[in-house]
User: Fold these one by one.
Assistant:
Number 1:
Amino acid sequence: MVITKYSQYKEEVFDFIEIFLNDKYPYYSESNISITPIENIRGHMCEDMNDSKISKLDQCNSMLSSDGTFPNNLPMFERFNNKSFKCGNNADFENSYLTYYEKYRIEFPLNNNKTLILKSMADMDNNQNFDEQTPKIKCSIFDETFKKAKPMQFPYSHFPEMDKLESKSPISLLFAHLYYKHNTTNEGSFEDIMNETCDTMDYIFTPPCQDTSKVIYTFGECYSKNQTMPIIFKNCRYNDIEYSDLTYKCTYLEYTNIKGYIIMITIFISCYSIKADIIISVYNNSSFDISIKKYKMHYFYISLLIVQILILSIWTKGSKIIVKNEIIIEKYGKADYEYDSCSYSNNKLLNVVFCDVFVILLNSLILSYKGRKSK
């Protein structure tokens, strides 16, 4: 409705609008079921959702006016005499008042001290054991749905996803692909075309992360070349952002990485050197002729192994070996991602174990040098 200075009956029009905008807003309430364009004004179904706005007297009269089912031959009803009761705001035996208790229930006075709660069977559907979906439940569903909904305020303004929907035209492309690709050229199956349309719709209506209050994200597989994991956003998307901001350092070392190759080759050389040194030591000790020059290296390795086992047993006692860790990025918050890692527990004992390992590694390097020198 447009009103200008050239409009006829301007005063009458404003009087007409005033009828819409009175205290109770009947036009908005009656023309909408649950939500109206005006804040804190509900539609006709949810207008009286809050029972506290209605007095117990009115609710009691409303319940008594509805049809009910009355049980027969129950001992409890022998206490009732032929006496008339009427609705009130409180249960009162002396003045013959009963009152509203809660949904489908009224409070009936037996005497001055005791009351009885009588329940209606109006909420039971066809004598089945389930409750009817009350207007209060329906209105709560409407409220939760409208909290997440985005209004289309055409033609003034609307949310930016509608622009992308108009520009990409996924429905038009769906019918075009069904006609050309599926029927004419057989390039794609019906399932592939539908999945393509659904993916496009998901991409269009996924909100930007900049406008999302709580970003939910996880991580993909680790790339061995640069030891990074891609960040995967579940409830939003980033359009213009640097690639470095969309990756995170891997929580483990890939064996196909250059560092992984170096570690594996070092372990292989160390194991081979230690194995060769033990074999040589045992072989030389088996000869009585050179008993004076017996090699003691296999005793050295055995003693280091026993020390490591003892230290590791003490280290693992009373502590978790594997712990769950979380990733928190300050820019995005806590990630929907957990990974396993070894527990450090007692760092001092763990340092002793690694010192033994480095001693063995150093000794293996010395043995390799001696072996080359002896040749």
Number 2:
Amino acid sequence: MAKLGISSLEMSQDEEDWLRVIANLNGDTMKSILTHSWRGHLASRKQHYVRKIDYLARSLGVSWETAYILLLQKNQPFSEADIEWAKSQDPLAIKDQELSCDYFRQNHPPKQEQKIDDDRK
């Protein structure tokens, strides 16, 4: 599992106090609460971010996969050299795979048994 070293987070004393209280109530660490929160945010907003990457890709005239590499490896504004470099890289994420689980669940709800109307028997 990748580790992201964040030396500090900007938050008010009240926010830090509440984070500590919630962590202690749950028998967790503040770090685990923040990790859980980030995972929840990503799960609920991932489709939104995929669409934003799509928009960026179209505006740059590149594939979604190339835009993802740019955003991961370079900082905006992107130069022509950045774009050419990203185009030459192997994909690190594939749009269809990033959307597949969410897309399938939304567009293929579980089938429910159809009830036959007693009058039609």
Number 3:
Amino acid sequence: MQILCKLYKIKDMEDGEVLRILEEKGLPVTRQRLAILKKILEMGCHFTARDLHIALDESAKAVDLATVYRTLKAFEEAGLVTCVAEMGNCRYYSGTHAGVIPHAHFCCKGCGRLFCLPPLEVTASREIRSLEKMGFEVHQLVVTIEGLCAQCRRREEGK
């Protein structure tokens, strides 16, 4: 899947800051976890485990793919990343760190591209407040709209 997102590259963090984040979440600190979290913060966009694995290889901080998958699972459980879309058996993640503005996504079922949409409107926070008043505990809001992008729609109409 190709992801089209101009949102939100985070400033480079020092190793000490990344270490502090892991410690605050109660995660054991390893060389691999430090490298993976630092890369997630640098990427600042949506990614798959494979995207992250390739980015780590390119930065000379090689971590095997199985470790990337296990670490993403631990990071998701700790609230450091969230799954923003799933296509088949592929999960797309985003960091939950400061600087990432909540936004919806459009997933094209024709070409598989994931488009970031503008930040969510006030109505979403109104709905969340309403749910909280009814006793619900909201952990996250993920909005993914599925359909055909303009290019795929034109292609379908031309058949």
Number 4:
Amino acid sequence: MKTYGFSNSSTHPYHEFHRAGFILVSPWRIIENGYIRVKNGKIVELGRYRPKCAFPVDVSGDGDVQHNGAGSVKDYGSGVIIPALVNAHTHFELSALRSRIPFNLGFNGWVRELLVQRERCGKELLEREACKAMDESAATGTAFVGDISTLGITRDILTNRASGMPGHGNLDSWETDESKLDILNKRPWRHYRHNRRDESRFKTACYRDFHIKQQTELSGIFFQEYLGNEIPINVLKPFDFYSQSFINRRAFSLAGHAPHTTSPGLLRALKKQTLKHNLPFSIHLAESHDETEFITKGRGRWASFLEERGVDFSDWPLQSGSPVKYLDDIGVLDRDTLAVHLLNSDETDLDLIAKRNAIPVVCPRSNMNLHGKLPDLPLMLSYAQGILKPALGTDSLASTQSLNMFDEMAFVAKHYPQIRPSEILAMATVNGAQALGYGDVAGTLEVGKDARFIYIPLKHFNISNNKSGRKCQNRTLGYSHKGSDIENIIMEIITYHES
């Protein structure tokens, strides 16, 4: 696992200047030899660096931060600064199941084994591995997540970390395949690095808010997931976590597991509460053949599985045209619904998703592992005027090899060669931020947004070597680059960790 430079400025009293060979403001906009000026955790200015700028710059390239009377300046080098990534769908609480469940069991068999293995792990191991997974996600450039928790483990971890309580994985360090990273942060504005043997390859700067005693700076929506028939009493009354302010850009919401596991009555109750509190609602949708068979015919392997577990589905309005149609029929599909997977959806389903302005979230590696097929991303992206803007997620470590969004983007690039690199990066940044309701503060590096970004040392890329492609003019900043130049840089970004 590699570590990427990641700035999460929050309450620093000075201005901070961050300069690099390229600033990728968005998947469609780039500044060569650019800088970002940050104050109080917000981007207040960005543009092209000139040697005679009014602010002094550390050009030594050693990764140190220098301070003067006006603020601090950091020159990262010849690489590229990009927006921090968004993992729109994952399950941290299943991280202890990494490599425990074979992928070739079929979906029904995989679910059965997941339940067995999760029970064997016990809460302590589930918590410890969830903590580790959260820290690994942050260390590989993810800043925002859409996390799903059935057992409530994620909420407990975040609540205890934010309050500084001990336990729940307060690790001094953790191991990866290549390095040991010091994660625990006890001092304000701590600057930490990859271990020294790799220091020449990686420049990592992490600024942390010392008011929050936690290892990770992950923000996002943390969904409490429900399934079955019973409507818990606490779903019918206001939860304390509903009214939590977006401290550290975090909020807690609700999710229904899937239309073939969660009754229509419970799904409507969950959806009613998320609408009331203006929060997104997440649900797995059209993921497996078992689901489609159950929804459209009311029988099959999944029906047998539910009967074994004592779930009465006799009053569910089954024999619908498709899982997507079923969800629409019960009134759950709307603009605040994250429709996760859509693996077994056709053009009619996607037309309905588009009509309701629902948000597709795809997890291609997980789909390939468990089902041997991929979602129709080209069809989603073909909708006029970007009506469908799919976001990218990793799913859990029970169904994929890592929670690294660079791995997910590289997989998409390999298996969908017809999709432009800019569209792939958009799925992992701006689309994901918009899906989770953070489009005004994350997803791009524009003035007014949070200063959360990653530095990637693409030292060997020379933009001037590219002679083909059409020009992409940015009149505001007064620079011009060919569209293919931007696409090539983004492809280098997506595949950097594989090189």
